[in-house]
Hints:
The protein is mainly alpha-helical. It has six helices and no strands.
Amino acid sequence: MIMKYRSLSTKIEQLKKITAELEKLQKKINKKEFLSSHMARWAIERGLQLSLEATLDIASHIIGEMEFGKAENYKENFEILAREKILPVSFAKKFKGAAGFRNILVHDYVDVDPKKVYEHFKNDSKDIKKFVNYVSKWLKKGDLL
């Protein structure tokens, strides 16, 4: 099966750009400023939401194109990628928490805990980069990208 690699590579590049922007913000915004500035919180929440949406979109794209099955929920996307040896199992278990956090940002946005957002802001970009690296390595190995 030939994967529609153009759209997938575009999604990966967009995810890299979003992650790079979040990393720039990490250098500029400390916790005190984050907690006191609605503008900073909104920008960071949106950046996190976009980056997590992109990881889920990439995972869904691979699963659908490669006919790996159908995920019953967002978290299962990462389990499927682990089953197919695209992601290490230990990473997939950890990273599926990101899907849960994405749901909070999208559906519980009114009650989102700013301190938890800040924790994700400081930590998730490393895991998102790992996700991109694992997926890119798999795509290159299969000559799909």
